Amino acid sequence: MKLEAETVAADADPRTRVRELGLDDPARYTGTLDAESLRWTPAEAENRAHSDHVRYTEYAGRSCDLTMRGGTTSGVIYPLAVCSLAEHYVFRSIGGASAGAIAAAATAAAEYGRLAETPGRTEPGTEAPGQTEQPPEPAAPRRSGEADDSVRPGFAGLAQLVDWLVSGTGDGRWRLAQLFQPSENLHRVYRLATALMQKPATTGRNTYLAVLAALLMAVTAPARAALVVLFAVWFAGPLGVHLALPPQRWNEVPWPIAVILAALALTAAGWVTRLAVSRLRRAGLAPALPLLPWLAGLLIWAGSAATAGTVPAWLVAVSAGLFSWLLLTFAALAAYAAIYGKACWPVLADAERFGFGLVPGAAPYVPSRVDRLAGMPASTGVPPLAVWLADRIDDLAGTAPGPDRRALTFGDLWLGPDVARDGENAGERLRRAAADSAERVINLALMTTDLSGGRPYRLPFEGTEEDDSRWQFCHRCLDGVLPARVVTQLCEAGTAATPCPRHPDTTLHWMPGPWDVPVILGARMSLSLPGLIQAVPLCRKGKLHWFSDGGITSNFPIHFFDTLLPRWPTFGLNLDRLDSDVPPEQEVHIAPQDSTVVAEPWSPTGAGIAAFGSRIIGTFLGWRDTMQSALPGFRGRIASVRQGLGEGGTNLFMTPESIARLALRGHKAGETLKQRFSVAGTGGESPGLTQTDRYRWIRMRIAIREFRELARQAQFRSPLYQDRTSTYLIPRELSGWFAEDDGVWPKREPYEEQINEAFTGLGDLANVQLAQPFDGTSPVNPVFRLTPPE
């Protein structure tokens, strides 16, 4: 089977190739829901597993889960991969972290929109909020270059998001960069960050000139005047020393001293120049600019008949010029550091006031003329990131637009569009879904990091509106962090009668129950890239907690949704990097599902201390995800999309052509996964079998090995535990473990008989069915252990 992405001419404009895939056609995705049973929740399907085996098997074969790694380009690469998978699969659970949360939230909303647009079991009067008996008229296909950023509901709209990113012209070419709009207080710092991203080959601006403009305009007018004076003194200093101390002043200096001084000066100047050039390349020659007028002065002086001087005198004069240049250069650097340190100190010392980031997310900012000199594109009407993302999530879900538009919530996803939020038994269903993810039509899980608590959290938070320990928020703290309509919707949960730690005159509000939490809040809390996007402040019991990027604790949560015996594969979309251009045959990598040993990950550490430190941080943050991704039953369902030089990273100024190329690689990743797991006979499988069958066989054998280990532990250690059921008296301190408290403490184990029977049954397994280890088990033995919930 030939991948569809390869059917278009490889030398065509990548933007044209994206459009010719036709992924913005809603008809491509409706056939996935051609059976009523595919609209079941996983719990509904499992209740029919034995009574309706055929439909349950079909349900499992057309279902998948999906997790996505964080990365700047994830919002560009993943959408078309998701669209490709959506042509065959229904997404049951979707997870992501960091920037991967954007694609995860968009995928969940698109699945909701597809269910809403595809005829199902909806009865009149039971439509979900924002839905009518007839779905709203979808947005018409957008023409190339059109400014409107609204999209269709469902996965066709997800494909349109990519088209929007690659369709701009002029300043609209940089729509990705335009989404990141700094706060009014920190736009000067952000201006410098933007200047560092400029490249003549892409934006047409020289990086060093853009950085110079950003630095010069980052300080006050008196500081700029001081910088100009410092530059003038530094630039003219060596020439001034030459004029003040001409060579004939040194005629009496002995030869040895003159030679030693010259050797020292030339060695020091050469070392500094080599160091600067090795680090800054051609720009490293800039510190030598003051030597040009100095050399000109020396030549003029040497050509004058009135300037007699001995050779030692000239050696001393050259030494004096070089030493003055070195001294003035280091003095100027120290003065510049002092000036900019003073300018930056208020920001560094009081970073909490600015939310520990440059970009609030929902506060608009219009670049000034000076900003544009530093590389920030002119405004073309693109809204801030969180506003744009909230609107696109609601577009994809198909909620009705307008001034009173409701943000899509996790509860909407759990119930699906077939059940109205205010319908009969909706509250009971939501509580069941909150307790058991199998009761959810669409399960979205996003990772965030509580820096104040030093732990990760999986969003939405657990708990109910009756829980007094649930989270609180201050609407003033969220001003500019989330769209105003979303903050207003959150405030409907009521006030908590507790003052905000940051705004003592403002009362905190309760965070709504998990089913009423807007999806955009979860995405915003997960993508708070440290230093760039502001962290999100919430409170609990009156204490302030700062929530930052989910990638700090798990940038690739491939463990989401995994169980010992999974129902269906959890696909992973990963980002990888090559230190070169990416050849077509290496654009996507998926490890085989076989017994071979996976090559250990390796990348060059680099020669500098900065590269070494970067590797330390990367290993510290990602080692667990890296190791888990290589396990049997994991590695064969992860597609790694590779990026080359100049692609991804912190580069927000990728050209539309580069974005389109990355999107096409994402589509290839989706096609490869879909082919591997849905097409019979691929990868060495027997006719009629797919690699989904191989995946289940691998997981079954791993599970049997764990069952055997548990049975053996129960067999040999039962004397240590089984006797506790009759001899141990449970103290009152453990009463919280029991749903019912009869007030009688201490008490004997109430389930003594059932526990003893379980130990006996496990012992029988160890003695009979699992007495000997099975041959044919994976050579890698994963370690299963109890882990705390996120």
UniProtKB/TrEMBL annotation:
The keyword DNA damage does not apply. The chain crosses the membrane at residues 207-235, 255-277, 289-308, 314-339. Keywords: Membrane, Transmembrane, Transmembrane helix. Residues 117-150 are annotated as: Disordered. The keyword NAD does not apply. InterPro entries: Acyl_Trfase/lysoPLipase (IPR016035). Gene3D superfamilies: Cytosolic phospholipase A2 catalytic domain. It comes from the Bacteria. This is Patatin.
